[in-house]
Amino acid sequence: MGRPVYLDCDTGIDDSLAIAYLMAHPDVDLVGVGTVFGNIDAHRAARNTLDLLALGGHGHVPVAIGAEKPLAGAWLGGPAHIHGGNGVGNVELPRGDREPLSDESAADLLVRLAHEHEGDLRVLAVGPLTNLARALDVETALPYLVESVVVMGGAARVPGNVTPVAEANIFNDPEAADRVLSAEWPLTLVPLDVTMEHMIEEADRESLLAADVPIPRALGQMLDVYYEFYVGTFGRRCAPLHDPLAAAITAGGATPLVAPTVQVVVDSTDGPGRGQTICDLRGERVGYPDQPTAHCRLVLSLDAPFGPHLVERLTSS
Amino acid sequence: MGRPVYLDCDTGIDDSLAIAYLMAHPDVDLVGVGTVFGNIDAHRAARNTLDLLALGGHGHVPVAIGAEKPLAGAWLGGPAHIHGGNGVGNVELPRGDREPLSDESAADLLVRLAHEHEGDLRVLAVGPLTNLARALDVETALPYLVESVVVMGGAARVPGNVTPVAEANIFNDPEAADRVLSAEWPLTLVPLDVTMEHMIEEADRESLLAADVPIPRALGQMLDVYYEFYVGTFGRRCAPLHDPLAAAITAGGATPLVAPTVQVVVDSTDGPGRGQTICDLRGERVGYPDQPTAHCRLVLSLDAPFGPHLVERLTSS
Questions:
Q1: What is the pTM of this model?
Q2: Domain Inosine/uridine-preferring nucleoside hydrolase: where (chains A, B) (predicted)?
């Protein structure tokens, strides 16, 4: 039996890779999924999630719909040019036979699972942090109930992907991110600094398409749209592994190498830095001396290339 | 006859290195210096500057006192633990026999020199940008009168030195920096990204102390205090070459290697990003495609180590 994991996501192509990775990992017991606006709306994200879970033999995992907009302000819709009009690269997944929970929000599901698996639950958030912020309001003891929190988001020393300094998950709800990153739980932040360095390539996509099980084939199809978008960033068809990398760190399948525990503050002003994760890396040349009140581990590099591990995991299961 | 250079500075140990470099460079005609609060107050910065100029046989160069505080808010005093109580590492320089201009501010001096050397004047600013911002108010055509502007300041992909994201010159007057960086002149920004990579070491300090002319000896003495401060940053006695590097780029003695022309915006909010230079480096992986309205060249690396060149220039003249 694996370790209990709650996933919060906005499914999404790289979210789909993360879900597939979690289903394929023997040490993971995916006990619930909450969805949030971001790559796509939260309702569609739940449908995508249920369909992926069914396709991967995990139809039993409960899926709850969460926030459709940030704590403050409006959501302007998902980036169809990145994730396709349906969030999963315009691929038509076979419809699973389950529906989202009708009586429980994502925040409520997270709180319930934190109590049911007290001290053991690993929380993995790969979308805007609105559901986690709400869960902290519902259950103020949440930071002390969960085992750990891993968040894909932010950019420390590299450019953002929405503004020059802001990454999409944080930018989509800076007020929620501020709340989640300042809560007193052991949090690992997986920013663009590391996710942009671990890639999936065209040859990998061909391996996925050639697999004789449905999930990798569906992922290989989805990646077509995603790769097209990233030609503008990388100059070739490929994609960075944002969400699956955070999933692998949660599962223990990827090991951070440089990962200092430092002060991280979210810029929630309305200025040009809105949505930036401001990380205090001033001690970088002397081994990051202790910052006594810091509780955010910032992953800046891994001990091994992640792409090959991901593809092997997805195609061998 | 060298090229006319106006220097705006807050002298300052590394400002002193910059002044010495400019005096020693055959292609530079230092036609005026304005001073500003920052490393020390503007009055003391003028005294330090006059004494250095006299010691280096440049007593004829006019020095004008500029702003003693930023455009908005107050100045809290200079960092005596970095530059010493007098700005020049507590070294007592022989008093030069000139005084600052009594009838002209730094901003007025800059505007006058820009007219006198129309199309030729190189402006080098190595302190807070208050005087340059005021000069832009006095003479709105200033951006079209000068040959170029080089500013030491900001941090693009590396930590700040006052906050996790803000460098001191910009942080000391973000409103002025915003005005100067958005004016339509050809501006080269020399941020911590490059200045923190070019060092002066203990052996270099010994070379300066062993010189048989007074300026390098005085610089070698000043560096004692400066080196002590930087032990906390680098783990050894040494110093990064902030201001002299900007001086060398102005003089043509250092050549930028990676130096894209990109959008740069100064965060002048009261949030955690105040004083940050937000640089749009999102095109870094595909050779920085044109950003049509950008006019700020951001120096990220040089084509050669600068420390040895600086020390040779200072000790051979």
A1: 0.96
A2: 5-304
